[in-house]
Amino acid sequence: MVDMPDIPRVARLLADVARTRIVWALIDGSARPAGELAFHAGISAQSASAHLMKLVGGGLLAAEAQGRHRYFRIANAEVACMIESMAALASGMELGLPQCLPSTGSSTQAFMHARTCYDHLAGEIAVSVLASMIKARWLRRKDTELVATRLGAQQLRALGIDLDSAQGERRVFARPCADLTQRHPHLGGALGTHMLKLYIDQSWIERMPKSRLVSVTPKGNEMFRKLLALG
């Protein structure tokens, strides 16, 4: 038999509705206690404990102790990207906006425009930025991933990206990540994380408290216009 990844193991973890609800409650990057996750899943605390053990053991969630309580979060960006991709596929991206979106406490329009996808930017702006970077030949596709061209490497460094650090991480450098609300992908991988850090550090965007939503600053509007003009 041909060796292959153990996809069925991951599929079984997410085949249970309660476990899916638990994971979806954490897609905003938050860390939450078992009791709160039990409420989101509509199950007892005992059942939630069993499900959380399976999700942690399967590598989808990570647990950390804070005082007398344990808090759970999505294990890493790769898991979060997989969950968003599955959500987009399940919703039928060709049909438009999925009917079930993470709770943000704000409008659907704002959620579609700009938000975080775990550790990188998502939404309309992020999709447009990736499209412009590919059209301007900063990035090119290589199988399912993206690599920086010589021009792209120069321009990304000039923008303020620590490219050596991004390329040296033990994860995919760059890849298209299915956007939950758009029909095209945004930028994921290590480069997507470094781009989000740039946006925040350089005050292009500001995070909204307890939300995945971000607001674009006046400086950000100007800088994003420049990036989108690349293509």
From TrEMBL:
It comes from the Bacteria. PROSITE patterns: HTH_ARSR_2 (PS50987). GO terms for molecular function: cadmium ion sensor activity; DNA binding; DNA-binding transcription factor activity; lead ion binding. Residues 1-94 form the HTH arsR-type domain. Keywords: DNA-binding. InterPro entries: ArsR-like_HTH, HTH_ArsR_DNA-bd_dom, HTH_Metal-responsive_Reg, WH-like_DNA-bd_sf, WH_DNA-bd_sf. SMART domains: HTH_ARSR. GO terms for biological process: response to cadmium ion; response to lead ion. This is DNA-binding transcriptional ArsR family regulator. It comes from Paraburkholderia bryophila.
